[in-house]
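Incident log, structure service

09:12 report received: a user says their structure output differs between two submissions of the same chain.
09:20 pulled the input from the user's history:
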Amino acid sequence: MPPKPRARTYVAALGIESASTAGSDVATSTDDDDYRQKRDRNNIAVKKSREKSRQRARETAEKMDRLRRENDELERRTVELAAELRTLKDMLLTRAARRGPTAATKNDKQLSSLPSSSQDADVVLADPHTVCIDHKYTTSNS
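09:34 re-ran on a clean worker, output below:
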């Protein structure tokens, strides 16, 4: 749709002639050029604004994907650590049972303070006699 000359249309609609539009094609031409320049600048600004908005949306989607992947990895790691905790707890109970009733009672008290599920695994009390070397656990009292 071609732009309408604002000054001429507005003044003509009112039936008023001013000094700038009173039969002067030069004044109308200048008004049209100014209007066209303003419209062009506005169109450029709108394009920039829309591109920035699309860029922000892309960045948000990428960040959301990255955070989802990170969350999945952390959940997987939590499951692994919970399984490792159960294994170590079983090993400790087996070892305590082999040592006899006195050692088993002492270790039962220590084990009762260990978390029993992955939800409780925020804090794990480490046995001071257990040493971790590449995920293979040995006991220094062996």
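09:41 both user submissions now match this output. Likely a transient worker issue. Closing.
09:42 reviewer note: The longest helix spans residues 25-99. The chain has a mean pLDDT of 74.
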